[in-house]
Design a protein that fits this description.
Blueprint (H helix, E strand, L loop, with lengths): L1 H7 L2 E10 L16 H8 L4 E3 L5 E8 L2 E4 L9 E3 L5 E5 L5 E12 L1 E2 L13 E3 L2 E2 L3 E13 L2 E13 L5 H17 L14
């Protein structure tokens, strides 16, 4: 239960929409860019961010000339931080090359495919992305026997947590435990209503 809470119940930030200049859909190419638009979108999904605002934020990326474009080239606001600046996005190979994008980022829980999100009609050239909001990337646990004094029937629990850097493993563990306690408290004192039977 704790592992499930860590992976699906912690809020995080992800890119949910992208608008790329001169690209109306994800199956095209851009002049002077080695990657296809689809490859660019897949690379954008690897970018991890942290937002201090609960409202959707729009950030931009504008690059020209011969250059390896990384997440660090994204122009953020005071409300947004790029946690993974070294993620490769694209390679521009000509002096006339240009990559101009608007990225919409939002907060959410777990993994949200495009189909599950309620969205208004997208504008021309806007591409929706599947969003992985969870800041926890991997959780593993092992239970082993442990001796305490003369007793040998204790268990030792080891939890390994890997995050995207927007939250520390200790903070992720603490927040997930708080979430579990909050949900379990709702059960305390629960009573089913008795049905009256009239014969």
């Amino acid at each position: 239960s704790l592992r499930r809470a860590l992976l699906s119940s912690l809020p995080g930030t992800a890119i949910t929409q992208v608008k790329i200049k001169n690209a109306n859909h994800e199956f095209g190419t851009l002049p002077g860019m080695s990657e296809s638009v689809l490859d660019l979108i897949l690379n954008l999904k690897r970018v991890r961010l942290h937002s201090y605002s609960d409202e959707p934020q729009v950030i931009t990326l504008k690059v020209k000339g011969v250059k390896e474009v990384k997440a660090s080239d994204i122009e953020t606001t005071s409300q947004v931080v790029v946690v993974t600046p070294d993620v490769h996005l694209a390679t521009l190979s000509e002096k006339s090359s240009e990559l101009d994008m608007e990225l919409t980022i939002e907060k959410g829980l777990g993994y949200a495919p495009i189909e599950s999100r309620k969205m208004e009609k997208l504008g021309v050239g806007t591409i929706a992305l599947d969003a992985l909001f969870s800041p926890v990337l991997k959780v593993d646990y092992k239970v082993s026997d442990m001796r305490v004094g003369e007793r040998t029937d204790y268990n030792r629990l080891r939890i390994s947590i890997e995050t995207d850097g927007s939250i520390s493993p200790a903070e992720a563990l603490e927040k997930s435990i708080e979430t579990m306690i909050h949900h379990l408290k709702a059960i305390i004192g629960f009573q089913e209503k008795e049905e009256l039977k009239i014969e």
